[in-house]
Amino acid sequence: MRSRSGIASILFFLSIFMPMTAFCEEVCVSFARGAWDAEEWLTVRSPRWEVTGEWEQNDDCISNRIPPGMTPEEQLSSPETYVSMLYKTPFQQDSVFSTRCAFDHRMAPLLVFSRELVPVHREHLEVVLFDRGLNLWHHYFKDGNPSWKKLGFLETQFSPGVVYDLSAEIFTNEDGTFLTMSCDGKSLTCPIDGGWPNVFYAGITACEGRNRFYDFRAKPIPSR
After folding, report:
1. Do residues 123 and 147 lie in contact, with contact meaning Cβ atoms separated by under 8 Å?
2. In this structure, what CATH number is given to the domain that contains residue 181?
3. Total number of domains constituting the chain
4. What does the DSSP 8-state code read for residue 45?
5. pLDDT tens digits, residue range 206-223?
6. Torsion angle of alpha carbons 59, 61, 65, 70, nearest 10°?
7. Tens of pLDDT along 43-102?
8. Residue 60 forms part of a structural domain
9. Residue 35: inside a domain
């Protein structure tokens, strides 16, 4: 029989190292009515506003709630259209993340990647789909204030009302850390300033107009 001190040592070891290995290798979530569990997700507010947006459940997707009477042009700059959520179980690099999504007017459904699982976004990356292409944004804090920098822009044309498969892959090699964003057969690989942790959180954000999300998927990619 093991001594109490031995058992305590084992429990301490597990408490330290088990969380480090508790990450998702593959996930496929449908946002159709009754097909997903909101408890697996954390709603995250933007640090730029005090407003926390809400999701609306549709038969085959979810969309961000738009205040009644708000015009498409007003939606472009309204914090009330912003709603974001992260999957509560973390992921690792060398995975590809994707979502089937659409926008009603001009923009801007996106994949989001966060260093932390927190109720207000801290440092995070955004892969943004809009009518003129794809953007990669790096959001961070400078002197205690939210700041952001565009890391990449793929100029092309996307149409409102069309369901696109938006994807992103984060990986590190001897040259640094990179993100490849892809949609509709077009892609761009961008370096990430300051690198990125091996384990992180991923999810979706709707903003700047009505966005629709049909699913969220993640899976590992073969070793490079």
Report:
1. no
2. 2.60.120.560
3. 1
4. B
5. 999 999 999 999 999 876
6. -90
7. 999 998 888 889 999 999 999 999 888 887 877 777 788 999 999 999 999 999 999 999
8. yes
9. yes
